[in-house]
TrEMBL record:
Keywords: Hydrolase, Metal-binding, Metalloprotease, Protease, Zinc. Zn(2+) 2 binds at D105, E139. One of its GO terms (molecular function) is metallopeptidase activity. Binds 2 divalent metal cations per subunit. Belongs to the peptidase M42 family. This is M20/M25/M40 family metallo-hydrolase. Zn(2+) 1 binds at D105, D162. GO terms for biological process: proteolysis. Residues 180-273 form the Peptidase M20 dimerisation domain. The active site is at E138. It comes from Criibacterium bergeronii. It comes from the Bacteria.
Amino acid sequence: MMENSRVIERFLEYVKIDSPTKEEKQFRQRLEQDLDKLGISHELDNAGDVIGCNTGNLIAKIQGTGDKTILFSAHMDTVSPGRGIEPEIKDGVITSKGQTILAADDKAGVSAIIEMLTVLKEEKIPHHNIVVAFTVSEEVGLSGSKNLDYSKFSADYGIVVDSGGAPGNVVVQGPAQNKVNVTFVGKAAHAGVAPEKGVSAIKIAAEAIANMKLGRIDEETTANIGSINGGGATNIVTDRVEIKAEVRSLNGEKLKAQTEHMIKCVTDAQEKYGLKAEIEVISAYSAFKIDEDSEVIKAVKAACEKTGLEFVAGKTGGGSDTNNYCLNNIPSVNLGIGMGNSHAIEEFINIEDIEKCTKLLIEIAKA
């Protein structure tokens, strides 16, 4: 049997450490051990206290000889089912053995960054100044990077390793997202004795949702209702129903228009019965778009050329820590590392993609 490369062995170890969202402490401690072995100083911020996580973001800094400071980032948390992961390899592809995710999202990214740091040190490769941010709670609204203590470092640009494209694929544009939380308000009554005295919040919600444009709105915009909850006994006319929805768009005006459309569907349905819904709109994160002539694009393009990878710029409908770094004046892109079927038990990643991405990171870091 062929021996796995060090970065692959590292990845196989990392995925076995449970780190569901808000429970990343154990994995963070392992990463601290790996940084200590490399003689790299590190610290935590207080993001965990803010968002109710058992640890903060892990930040490390490495002095280099180059004139730039580059942020490299990946997130520590995983989605469910992500406990007791057992990885296996078949024909160069890594999957999980059981009914769990693999956690390539984003332990493949974490593994590649740690391996990059190891190679730079071992081979005494001249490199730019480096900041590493391993974030928490990315999977729930990018909460870790949203609450990252940006006063602890500065960077000229950022490299996030958290995309499903093959190495060389680079996400340069991502959407903004609004969370739309609605409580439909009806009027309770006995469903068998006096139903005419009640107003069903379920009926109001159904009318509102039926009138909403959902799914793929256009090439830049999507909308979805993720959950609906309410009601109880069949002999009670339900007076409250809650939905949690989202809107995403690469275009700010379209984001606003779709959000307002969904709210209007709610208010129109409620007003029909002389009642008023409770509506909350939360800006989850902002959109980003990186110009072709930016420093970060030039750096990644050059590194792709040196490592024999085809540079492919693209956009995504998903959010990542990239959104928050750009919002905080660190122009950033999201690199592909080849993960597939993320957030599903069929998740997989090719060994060669992790290795290629690691080589790309090393080249980006070089001074």
